[in-house]
Amino acid sequence: MNRKIACRQCGKQAILDPSNPWRPFCSERCKTLDLGEWFGERYTIPAESQDDFNDAADLPPPGLPRHQ
């Protein structure tokens, strides 16, 4: 059974099934447009606080031992 949903980019019907390589989008074009929105920073995921970023800056570079 092929479940259909609205494409997240254009709203047309999209098949939500492994046979649709662009799911949850209806086409490669819509998938690419959505990716461009992320790269253009028009979509964001809010951080809980600015401290989330400061904690990451305090970590040593990968491969170096952490001081305890």
Overall number of strands: 2
With strands numbered from the N-terminus, the spatial order across the biggest sheet is 1-2
Oligomer category: single chain
Per CATH, the superfamily is Erythroid Transcription Factor GATA-1, subunit A
How large, in whole angstroms, is the Cα Rg? 19 Å
Shape: elongated
- Tell me the number of helical segments per DSSP (H or I, 4 or more residues long): 2
Mean pLDDT: 82
CATH topology: Erythroid Transcription Factor GATA-1, Chain A
Terminus-to-terminus distance: 55 Å
Query: What summary fits the major beta sheet?
Result: 2 strands, antiparallel
Q: What is the structure about, briefly put?
A:
This protein is 28% helix and 9% strand. It is built from 2 helices and 2 strands; from the N terminus they run ββαα.
